[in-house]
Design a protein that fits this description.
Layout: H1 13-35, H2 39-50, E1 74-75, H3 85-103, H4 106-111, E2 114-119, E3 122-128, H5 145-158, E4 165-172, H6 186-203, E5 211-216, E6 235-242
Parallel strand pairs: 1-2, 4-5
Antiparallel strand pairs: 2-3, 3-6, 4-6
Helix pairs in contact: 3-5, 5-6
Length: 249
Amino acid sequence: MGRKKGHGHHGGAWKVAYADFVTAMMALFLVLWLVSQDQKIKEAVERSFRNPFASITKQSTGIIPAEENTMTVMARSGNFDSASAIELNMLRKLAEDLTAMLHSNPESAEQNPLDLEITPEGMRISVFDRGNKPVFEPTSAEFTQYGTWIFTTLAWQISRFTNNFIVELEGHTEKGCTYTNLNRGPWELSSDRANASRRKLIEYDVLPRQIRKVAGFADTQPMPNLEPDSESNRRVTVMLKVKSGNQLQ
């Protein structure tokens, strides 16, 4: 009788066992790596598992800082050690979302009411009160309907990052503006507008404890490369500063 054939193959069970071993080793490596990281990275990993599509974009810094990253908004040259890669990613995401929401309004898309600038401290948001599309009523701290929409949009976006940033507000005016009330000049107007902005942000869910400064500078701090009497100097600046330590706790 001839010998039976077909005993040359013993199945793929060893491949399954090997794959399980490799998977276990990879999981062990990831756990050991995560345990060795600081708290901010652990929190970022947790957020990515809870909502994996919320914050990472094709230009994201990700969890591990890359050597080269392209900012989606203007960034000053300087030392960014005060803001981690994760915080810079949050700022970039906030800038992208703000830009998208403002461009959804045809009026804002045409007027470009905001200037977004990432700095070593965080992000500076300048809200311009231009004559052709004013944010405030003339020489007043009362919001126009458009101004209410702008600051409501800002508040909704900032409130998403309650535990990451503190807020500072500054009011500014241009030089040479005429005031009908002699007792209400540029110092009063710039301070009142900054304070009105504070109230509007709080009304739409920014926490009062996040706001650390409200100030008016009149016409003493014009925008760089602008004439002092340019209407673009008439603005409210919202500064988002990276929280250090337990400032908000």
